[in-house]
Amino acid sequence: MTDQRIVSICPSNTELLDALGLIDRVVGIDDYSDWPPEKVKDLPKLGPDLNINMEKLVELKPDLVIASLSVPGMEKNVERLAELNIPHLVLNPKTIEEIYQDVHTLGAACGVPERAQELVAELMRKIEQVQAKAERLPHSPKLYWEWWPRPIFTPGSGNWLTPISALAGGSNLFSDRPGDSYTATHEEVIERAPDYIFAVWCGVQADKVKPEMITEREGYDAIPAVQNGRVYVLEEGLYCRPSQRLFQGLEELVDLLLADQP
């Protein structure tokens, strides 16, 4: 199966393929797949993930296309793959456990089940190490994650950032809201008084976002996170993509929370 030709049309899938040692089989990717940069920079690009160039994809003669529903609107890509009778695998993880399951599914589909098992074990060990660190936190801070500013999109109970927050010793500010995401109001954010604000605007590079774009909003000066200088712009690739990089984000998150303790 080493001559298998794989196309990935979602960044998190491309990252999982690399973690499984399969990036050398990848013959095409979506425009947003940017990691690991040195391995993907020269791969053929097939357009943005919500508008894949299917003609170009067909020309690559893939044996398997790895699609995803983790980004709203990806359904039309999956429908076109089915219409064209192209072998494909659809991932749609919302939780950490489902990421583990997808690793096993991807490993089995590509003939590397042993590597998949090893990878899941590695990720589980990272979680154990983070939990041990998180026990040193004196209290559980409230974490407000902002995916998008206008309107405000933030993770709800069904998204991986709820357990990620808990594993790091904190709590997702909107973990009581059902579903994967929640459209919040500024009034709700102010009323809930988060201890930390994390800007992880989807698809936006961290250097394009400034903390004052949040701190200068009307009424936000009453929020503890703003008063205590705990508004951070984080790399969205470590928190918005359901791949192994999410676990790196978890490690960095617990270190950040611990570093802020007196």
Automatic annotation (TrEMBL):
Gene3D superfamilies the UniProt entry points to: Nitrogenase molybdenum iron protein domain (3.40.50.1980)
Domain Fe/B12 periplasmic-binding: 5-261
InterPro entries: ABC_Transporter_SBP, ABC_transptr_periplasmic_BD
Pfam family for this entry, one: Peripla_BP_2
Family to which this protein belongs: Belongs to the bacterial solute-binding protein 8 family.
Protein name in UniProt: ABC transporter substrate-binding protein
Species annotation: Tumebacillus lipolyticus
